[in-house]
């Protein structure tokens, strides 16, 4: 489990909520109940971390309706349900209620809930809260998301079933996660082509122009397939355009017809070379 604890999302989870969870268990015997599939990595990582700190812990799993719980592992202990995130709160409510109705029977001393992210603010322990409008960043992705993204980046056509076999998830669970990543605009699916199959050389065009001319060029160039790099820059020039071409003539025509002809362009500096080392591909989509 040492590898799990080194994964950045899990390390962050432990760093933020670990001490509070340790305090919750105190000197009592504890049980981690992780919800499958999303809570698996967090549950096992937390279990190993607490065991390493001398806590008397067991670990088991269950469906969010309580099915599959190994009752002997939870009996007479403080329980912590662990999941990856709380989206609508339904899973949280079902799993908490499933144990609450068995609390007396199993002599559970307490029941709490921990998650990485909590959309609705119900969990007892969480790294943070976010709404559906939140912009994602790398720290928001959990270990399973990162493995899925890594697999797709190598082979974007790999089936959900094959990805699931590599990370111990069902094809449905993988599809749900990919759909979520697409919805949150963390990833996107698009057709790309290899630059060196279409272009023989490239050019970097540094442009000094007035602000209105820059805005008009950006609006035009972000829709053009041969433009693979477009960025505002500071210094003498205020716009950098990277283009691919099949010949020097193509490059020259683009500069004269698409760049130099724009009103407001004051100065141009050009460097040319082979097709770029990175990026190797260009999206076929246009804005």
From TrEMBL:
It comes from the Bacteria. It comes from Candidatus Wildermuthbacteria bacterium RIFCSPHIGHO2_02_FULL_45_25. The keyword Lipid metabolism does not apply. It holds the Pfam family HTH_AsnC-type. Keywords: DNA-binding, Transcription, Transcription regulation. PANTHER family: LEUCINE-RESPONSIVE REGULATORY PROTEIN, TRANSCRIPTIONAL REGULATOR AZLB. Gene3D superfamilies: 3.30.70.920, Winged helix-like DNA-binding domain superfamily/Winged helix DNA-binding domain. InterPro entries: AsnC-type_HTH_dom, Dimeric_a/b-barrel, PRTase-like, Tscrpt_reg_AsnC-like, Tscrpt_reg_AsnC/Lrp_C, WH-like_DNA-bd_sf, WH_DNA-bd_sf. Transmembrane segments: none annotated. This is HTH asnC-type domain-containing protein. GO terms for biological process: response to amino acid. Coiled coil: none annotated. The keyword Metal-binding does not apply. Residues 141-188 form the HTH asnC-type domain. GO terms for molecular function: sequence-specific DNA binding. GO terms for cellular component: cytosol.
């Amino acid at each position: 489990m040492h590898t799990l604890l080194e994964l950045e999302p899990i390390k962050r989870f432990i760093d933020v909520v670990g001490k509070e969870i340790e305090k919750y268990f105190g000197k009592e015997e504890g049980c981690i109940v992780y919800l499958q599939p999303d809570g698996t990595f967090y549950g096992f990582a937390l279990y190993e971390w607490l065991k390493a700190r001398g806590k008397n812990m067991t670990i088991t799993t269950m469906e969010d309706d309580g099915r599959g719980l190994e009752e002997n592992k939870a009996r007479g202990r403080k329980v912590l349900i662990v999941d990856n995130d709380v989206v609508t709160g339904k899973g949280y409510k079902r799993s908490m209620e499933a144990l609450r109705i068995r609390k007396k029977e199993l002599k559970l001393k307490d029941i709490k809930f921990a998650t990485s992210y909590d959309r609705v603010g119900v969990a007892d322990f969480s790294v943070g809260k976010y709404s559906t409008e939140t912009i994602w960043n790398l720290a928001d992705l959990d270990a399973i998301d990162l493995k899925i993204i890594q697999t797709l980046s190598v082979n974007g056509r790999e089936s959900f079933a094959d990805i699931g076999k590599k990370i111990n998830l069902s094809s449905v669970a993988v599809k749900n996660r990919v759909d979520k990543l697409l919805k949150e605009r963390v990833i996107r699916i698009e057709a790309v082509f290899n630059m060196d199959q279409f272009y023989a050389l490239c050019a970097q065009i540094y442009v000094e122009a007035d602000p209105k001319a820059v805005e008009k060029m950006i609006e035009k160039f972000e829709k053009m397939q041969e433009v693979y790099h477009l960025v505002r820059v500071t210094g003498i020039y205020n716009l950098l355009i990277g283009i691919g071409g099949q010949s020097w003539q193509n490059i020259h025509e683009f500069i004269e017809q698409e760049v130099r002809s724009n009103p407001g362009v004051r100065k141009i500096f050009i460097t040319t070379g082979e097709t770029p080392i990175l990026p190797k591909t260009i999206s076929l989509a246009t804005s």
